[in-house]
Amino acid sequence: MTVAMGRADTPLPADVDVAVIGGGIMGLGLAYHLALLSGGKGKQPLSVAVIERSYLVSGASGRNGGGVRMQWGDAGNVRLMMDSIELCKDLAQQLGINLWFRQGGYLFLARTEAGERRLERNVQLHGEVGAPTRLLTAAEAQAIVPQLDVAEVRLATFNPEDGVVFPWAFVWGYAAKAVERGVVLRTHTSVVRVEPLAQGFALHLHTGEVVRARRVVNATGAWSGALNHQLGIDLPNRPHRHEILSSEPLKPFLDPLVVDLSSGLYFSQSTRGELVTGISLPDAPDGSDESLTLHSSLRFLTHLSATLTRLMPITAAMKVLRQWVGPYDVSPDGDAIVGPSPGHPDFIQVCGFTGHGFMMAPAVGRLLARWLALGEAHPMLARWSPGRFAAGGVARREDMIIG
Amino acid sequence: MTARTFVCRCEDVTLTEIERAIAAGLSDVEEIKRYTGLGTGPCQGKECLSALGRLLVARNLIAPAALRPFTARPPVEPVTFGALAAGATDHPEDPSP
User: Which of A10, A73, A316, B96 could lock onto B82 through a cystine, CB 3.0 to 4.6 A?
Assistant: First the structure.
């Protein structure tokens, strides 16, 4: 069955229980899980509408590297990603679409003493939480990726459960199944005004239509500030530009996604055969890009190429096909911003994932749907509370933010 | 034409797959690119984009004057990492923690 996933004329109901603004993986994953959960035995189904300003896969969900890993520096994030990867294992069957999910592991390389300490600490933590990460010598890392020049590598870690996906298919899969289960999906439609009502909100669309929603979810990521400001909600997440590129497709030669901690370089081979790679740009301004213009730079290409060819000399002969930019929605403490907004508890944030929302989305969609539909708590929801910033200083717990 | 008519030869996207995208309500070259992978291979759409545009116009899904190519992604032609590395001005040999 083919369902409509890109229509600007899909009829919208005048009233819905939940309106999700933003048709990225967060909004669509949430809508899919809400549709799965609601309307069980003897329960009234929740009506859900997703409203996307542009087309599906137009934002960060269509621009990321598709890495999915358990190797985080904080127990909460490790557990969350263990859930996400577990969900990925049979998600292709559930969504009826090839997600190109491939568990080739993540190989982290440390070239400094500080990096070495981070990896040792991670392995200790992962062991306590139950993630199968192990420490490797430089020679053992080279046995996994023989093309690496490991002369400077002091220590490495490898987790065979980590992997990569092809992001586009993922988003279409959630969208199609959500629509099949009754979610109304409207694309090419902007929300121009959010009007608080006694109960819920009225969403005024650029078409002149108005949708009233008992609860509204702001799933617009790097674009979320403008909607929040309309309601006087002041949150500290800000858009940052990040560049990425892909190479010509080659036959499979690289199993894991490799991360060099010192440079922030990461690269993997997608199931399509391309090398997909990005890097932290040194000396860049803080990366803030409120304009969200998403322009590519030559400096990114040359800096990445110099770092990559040094770590893996064989890549010197590989060709770059395309580069592009995607926004990270950066939260100051590195933790996402999810839950009731300060002053507007029925306006729910699912933002601030700081460049790692795609990999977390399978777990987040499920836990957020369980909270919205069933009132079920989750430890990460307490931690991600949008209200935490009002209380003042927030400690940064996570140092494994890459790219 | 048969169901195995290839519109994008780099990424093996067939006319049937484009038809499926249109049936799913997609009518914009950017969204059809992301649904099918059309135009993301070595030629970067230089061969298939006009064929897709023509199809959308023929189906009255877009007016000819409104038709735009999808965003051009550098480089114009494939370039090796080696050639690009030679243009680097940063110093990747200084690792930071």
Answer: A316
